[in-house]
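Input record (one chain):
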Amino acid sequence: MTKRLNIAILVMAYCAFAQSDRGTITGTVADASGALIPNAKIALVNTGTQSRFETVTSGTGNYTIPALPVGIYDLAVEQPGFSSYKQTGIQVQVAVTTRVDVALHVGQSNQTVEVAAESPMLRTESAEQSTTISGDTINALPINFAIGAGAVRNPLSFVQLTPGASISGWNTIKVNGNPTGTFRILFEGQESSSGLDARVSDESQPSVDAIQEFTLQTSNFAAEYGLVAGGLFNFTSRSGTNQFHGSAYDYMTNEALNAGVPFTNNGSNEHNRIQSRLHDFGFSAGGPVYIPKLYNGKKQDVFLLELREVSRQAPGVLCPADGAFGRVAQWRSERDAQHQRRGEQGHRHRSIRAADHPKSDFRSAELHRCGWTPHA
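The corresponding structure, as predicted from the sequence alone:
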């Protein structure tokens, strides 16, 4: 029994380890004639954190560096008898394998051939279909209190940028025609979907400003990403860098900035404005770990602190004007008609059943504020 339990724990640990938010760089090293070069030294450096990854090419001239944090990298290749090679600006994305093939030229090792070009975007390593949304896109596009159950800034809104995918209402996400609520969310390689309903995952999500980027994998992805039918969201968070930096923000809505609702009157010959007061504010700060005279973590240890708060005030009730607006809003119950006639005869007292209104969840206090007397 103990042996079976240990095996089960190892299997679960392996599955958890396999699900990664990291990227991979692979390729070959060859000379000018196309002959592959074994044992060439490969060095990869993250330009933001200065983290360094090293390997050598195999006997067939191939190399692979897996489990790379998302970011921009510089690649350097050295081999005796050939000029050194350096390529800058290589972008590593979430759950994406990037191919970078290197061609060395005969020359002195103190000579360097530098290539400032992006890695090819044509994927030849797998048939996976996915879309990667970068942090710059997340910050540039308007998602302030966008689609989602909690009406907060919701990164899942970006599913609309993916071919074959759509989102509406309460995170009703459809990918390639699969049923809603069958998508899955991973954050930093860990399960982040709600066990009750995947659609409510945005209510406990990290701040949009804490997200580095994410990839929505729609089909043909690796078997390590199981238990999903309607798309896999793979998120990774931002990291500190070797430079201190920070930011602060406040996204807000207020009815004072909105247009009035047509066919309404607030008693001052102005249109009513439905109360809507939401704030999504916070700050972030990051950089190298540094303790004066004790520790300098530059190029070794970095940190990022992110704090976010969402504040919302319950929306008010739109008080209808007598006459036309009642009909426009389709308050057509017999009880409404009776009270409307009673009001035309000079009775200022008005009452309504809360359930008679199309939005039956209004509270009694809000109805009183409009002059209505709710009753059972």
